[in-house]
Design goal:
2 domains, Rossmann fold, about 30% helix
Amino acid sequence: MPFRPKILVVESDPALGRQIESTLNLMGSEPCCVVAQHDVVSRIETEKFDGAFLDWDNPAVNPEALIRRIRHSKSNARIPVIILSGRATAREVAKGFGAGGTFFLAKPFDMNELGRLLNASRGSMLEEHRRYERVPLSVPTLCEWGQRRGQKFASGRSVNISSTGLLLKLSPLPELGTAVFVELRLPGQQRSLRLKGIAARVGPGDQAAIRFVQVDKQQRELLEIFVAGQPGSPLFPLA
């Protein structure tokens, strides 16, 4: 299935907002247009986006605070943020980048410029999308955590996996934030993977979400190849 980036659009001018929405749709994206500050904040915290177009001149929101909110959110901290502004002075551009913006597009602009910017951002959007793409996986999984004297072991079964983390059913569960080692074997592989992670979410239903850390290049490539070769499933951010 072709990649359709889900893009948050915050634009105060209704006519320009419709133009942006139409252009993004035509270019194979999925725009989500929002105006009110509380709606924007809510969606940043509860939904996964691949990128954002943000009106820097929007009187209904605080654009600097919104960008910082994005950069500190659990799921959207690394997405490209494109600032749209009619105040393209050196001072405003510096403020935008200082807040965490990725690109700055001066108003007025035509839709060809918008399209070129979308294409320039598409690679980083796809990379970000792949970080969160999760596929079903049900294989025996062993977890280990704790110091040597208080070391704990638990066997369980994976539920789904991405190149950056794993959801599994396990008992007992590690405490939130605990460093764990996870051992499992991907289908078709002769050797098991032993991956270091952090318990990013625990419960309910004896479920633990493990975010991988310090994954070496070979293991990451194996994970990416496996995930890319499976039918996709919905995106579930780990942390």
